[in-house]
Specification:
Helix content: under 10%
Shape: globular
Number of domains: 1
Distance between the termini: 24 Å
Strand content: over 45%
Radius of gyration: 18 Å
CATH architecture: Sandwich
Length: 321
């Protein structure tokens, strides 16, 4: 997934000095962002009040949208560095192409995991013959220093492990949850899970006390630690929790995102993650000059040009504004 904003601003985040070391209940509201010609998303990270949750640094929630007579998702070829992208669907299909030659249709509850590493380009689109409803989330994971220049890679995992509890089924997307571990490659201690809450669910989900967490409401109405969540909202939960109370009267879908607080400070600008202005400038120049990132073959349309850099130097700073 790309950040398609024409006037990209730097997101300066990372470091542990501003991590909530104790449980909190900080409700994050989304902002509407256009994605291509016909898709609008709710951007929850980066947020004015919160930039990261563990290594999770970018979260878009979209749909459910009726795209029967629409082109659906149409994201032209664009570059990435220093991160992993996670494609996660509740409804619909997304066709992934990348500069490694990958061509993969991603369907509901299947993991599409792309590691950008030193450089990759990709496109995402709804297939020409696509299902009526499109609903899902696109997320980024920041890569730590020792892994952020790894070779690019793409993984598709159609079957994922499941953790269960009374009235709860949790598909483990990344990392592990309650003893179930995802096959997706990770480079930092992390958790990502899709939780299906049955009607009448009232459960306490075990957590890691050293992780910070957030709960993203995907569908239905749920309560996390007593806070009511509506679809498209996200509750930051802080650290120091050994369990999370979850309940739903009529049933709901919630994504749990968590991980060890990300120690490094990073610069996130447009679709690049680096550590300095110079790195970002070099990545932008390479993309615009057609080097380093390779080509995405098969997409009908032009690749996405990078916006201009801001007039001031980008500097890595803290996690919250």
């Amino acid at each position: 997934m790309s950040n398609l904003e024409r006037r990209a601003t730097a997101t300066l985040c990372g470091g542990r000095s501003e991590v909530a070391a104790e449980p909190v209940r900080e409700l994050l509201r989304s902002r509407q962002v256009a994605l291509g010609e016909s898709t609008r998303v709710r951007r929850l990270l980066p947020n004015l009040g919160r930039r990261m949750v563990g290594a999770w640094c970018f979260v878009d929630h979209y749909g459910p949208d009726d795209i029967l007579d629409e082109p659906g998702m149409q994201v032209p070829p664009h570059p990435h560095t220093g991160l992993q992208t996670v494609s996660w669907l509740h409804d619909g299909e997304v066709l992934h192409r990348d500069s490694l030659g990958s061509l993969q249709t991603i369907r509901p509850r299947e993991l599409g995991l792309m590691t950008a590493g030193r450089a990759i380009a990709h496109s995402e689109e709804s297939p020409a013959d696509h299902p009526r409803i499109l609903h899902g989330a696109q997320l980024w994971v920041a890569l730590p220093e020792e892994h952020r220049r790894v070779a690019p890679a793409f993984e598709h995992h159609p079957v994922l492990p499941v953790a269960t509890g009374p009235g709860l089924t949790g598909t483990v997307i990344l990392g592990d949850l309650d003893g179930a571990r995802s096959p997706g490659t990770v480079h930092t201690p992390i958790t990502g899970a899709d939780l299906a809450l049955a009607p009448g669910c009232d459960v306490r989900l075990p957590l890691e006390r050293d992780f910070e967490y957030a709960a993203l409401a995907m569908s239905g109405e749920a309560e996390a630690d007593g806070v009511r969540l509506e679809p498209g909202s996200m509750l930051y939960l802080g650290c120091g929790r050994s369990e999370l109370p979850l309940r739903s009267d009529a049933g709901a879908g919630v994504m749990l995102l968590g991980g060890e607080p990300f120690e490094e400070k990073i610069v996130m600008w447009w679709n690049f993650i680096g550590r300095s202005h110079r790195e970002i400038d070099e990545a932008r120049t390479d993309w615009m000059e057609g080097s380093r990132f390779g080509e995405v073959h098969g997409y009908t349309g032009d690749r996405l040009p990078a916006p201009g850099l801001p007039p001031v130097a980008l500097k890595p700073r803290g996690r919250v504004r």
